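Run log, item B.
One chain of 163 residues. Sequence copied directly from the ordering sheet:
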Amino acid sequence: MIFDIRCASLALTFALALAPAAGNAANTDVVTEMYTWWNKAIYSSSELTPAAFGEYYTQDAVLKLNGVVVDKGVDNISKRFVALSSRGGKVENIMPALVVFQSGDQVFMQHLIYSARDGKEVCMIAAGHADLVGGKIAVMDIVRTEVTAASGDILAQCLKTHK
């Protein structure tokens, strides 16, 4: 399982490295739009409704984190993020993404995630792709890991957005 995740992450990193430089420009892809909305909505659980998620996700959407299906359907995705919102603190998918590009019905993205709760700041790097159906996210498949001091510039880039 860990081997599969590392292989998927390596393959995605390679694909992202080959992406055109324009992939970093302002985008109007549904994943960027969803994260931009999510970054505001996460602070108000009343905004995290299945209908709101349905603006970006198909009704039967699948959310995968580190190779594991964690939720299916906008009802369950909504519940996941309402629970996250209720824990308090701060969390942000930092936009613009480090890399984002769309190829057909797939959006590929690499971005940073910042969170702070109970006096602890954490930065993560996430890479993944979304499979689209009818312009909405049908599958969101993300691998992520915590960024440490050994990561140097990436950690500094993540933290500077919140100082």
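Observations after the first pass:
- The CA atoms of residues 30 and 135 lie 7 Å apart.
- The mean pLDDT is 85.
Flagged for discussion on Thursday.
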